[in-house]
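Need a sequence for this fold. Nothing fancy.
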């Protein structure tokens, strides 16, 4: 499981508007691309400020509907973040106005989960069952996490991760729709062992780590649709060098399953590792072997000592070069041998984060924000966050699924 939170989600730009310099940076936006019209199997997606009080930057939102199973008691929940690097639906308790039945283990104990994010944060909450629908697609009795919905104290192994993100303000969204390539958020690992800080079985007063069978884990909902269940396409317009106030795009369900989701003959297929969605990237002679494409990260995160970091304490770890750096990275598809993978060169730019935010304090989309990747224990990572997706149609096929061009898991663009 690899849940990455947007590092500057909810950043109050007014706090940092004190020490910028230089002119507007240049960027190299992606090519223009056709964007589908929302319809059956196509859901509207938007980059905007998010829920009231959040002021999100580079976060992609959609709307999902959840219902008490087998009833018409339903709620449409907006501002749910689309995340291609996690699996499962998670909803903030404070955004939920209906009561969903708890998910129980074989002993009748309530199940809960500790979702751990990069940067030392976590979200704790009970699991529940819900019927879910989006863009005419639906799943019955889906296991979901209700973040911040437990009255039981957070287990020590979970709280030890760092700070809690269990409110809309701290989480930056009303929930997460995880459509990563893995079918489940943990898979065989949590069937065989009690992973510290992952799944828990809870009584009225206490929670202990537990194993969880595959069907009871959080599932990528799109893999469970009756049709259009082999992958998704993220379609977003380009963003100028100075950013945009908002963006409108779509998430398309299914690839080569309907007339509106055909594979592109011009796209390069990059296979990824089954459990992690990793591929490899090379930049300026350095190899980033544990890299991934992630709509759930709000910048391009990679470690490059040649890039000047911001000195403003509100932007620790972000890059603030004196002038925009125009760069190229080579993405390499995963192979079991580690060599010979399909390659695709990607051009991108890194601008001065502080200057961008000062000059465009009301904007929600920036194509050229970057920063260091600081997840403990993973030093060879290039996290191609949401800016990578601007100006591209990005195809993602899930594990165990296939399109007309290749078997998953893979990304293509």
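Here you go.
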């Amino acid at each position: 499981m690899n849940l990455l939170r947007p590092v500057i989600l909810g950043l109050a730009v007014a706090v940092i508007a004190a020490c910028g310099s230089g002119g507007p940076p240049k960027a190299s936006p992606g090519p223009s691309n056709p964007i589908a019209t929302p319809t059956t199997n196509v859901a509207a997606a938007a980059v905007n400020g998010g829920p009231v009080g959040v002021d999100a930057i580079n976060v992609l939102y959609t709307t999902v509907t959840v219902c008490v199973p087998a009833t018409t008691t339903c709620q449409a929940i907006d501002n749910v973040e689309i995340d291609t690097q996690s699996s499962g639906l998670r909803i903030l308790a404070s955004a939920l106005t209906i009561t969903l039945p708890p998910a129980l283990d074989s002993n009748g104990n309530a199940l809960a989960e500790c979702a751990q994010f990069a940067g030392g944060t976590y979200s704790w909450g009970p699991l529940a069952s819900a019927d879910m629908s989006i863009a005419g697609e639906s799943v019955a009795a889906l296991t979901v996490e209700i973040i911040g919905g437990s009255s039981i104290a957070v287990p020590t192994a979970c709280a030890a991760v760092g700070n809690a993100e269990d409110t809309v303000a701290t989480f930056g969204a009303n929930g997460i729709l995880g459509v990563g390539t893995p079918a489940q958020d943990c898979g065989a690992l949590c069937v065989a062992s009690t992973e510290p800080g992952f799944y828990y079985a809870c009584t009225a007063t206490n929670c202990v780590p537990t194993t969880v069978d595959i069907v009871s884990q959080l599932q990528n909902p799109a893999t469970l649709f009756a049709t259009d269940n082999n992958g998704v396409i993220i379609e977003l317009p380009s963003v100028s060098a100075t950013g945009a106030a908002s963006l409108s795009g779509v998430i398309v369900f299914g690839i080569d399953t309907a007339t509106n989701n055909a594979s592109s003959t011009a796209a390069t297929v990059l296979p990824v590792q089954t459990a992690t969605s990793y591929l490899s990237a090379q930049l300026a002679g350095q190899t980033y072997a544990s890299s991934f494409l992630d709509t759930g990260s709000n910048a391009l995160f990679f470690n490059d000592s040649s890039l000047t970091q911001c000195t403003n304490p509100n932007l620790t770890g972000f890059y603030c070069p004196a002038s925009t750096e125009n760069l190229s990275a080579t993405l390499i598809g995963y192979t079991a041998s580690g060599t010979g993978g399909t390659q695709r060169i990607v051009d991108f730019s890194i601008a001065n984060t502080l200057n961008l935010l000062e000059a465009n304090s009301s904007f929600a989309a920036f194509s050229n924000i970057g920063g260091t990747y600081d997840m403990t224990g993973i030093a060879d990572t290039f996290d191609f966050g949401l800016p990578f997706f601007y100006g591209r149609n990005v195809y993602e096929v899930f594990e165990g699924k296939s399109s007309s061009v290749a078997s998953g898991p893979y990304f293509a663009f």
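For context: Confidence is low (pLDDT under 50) at residues 1-31.
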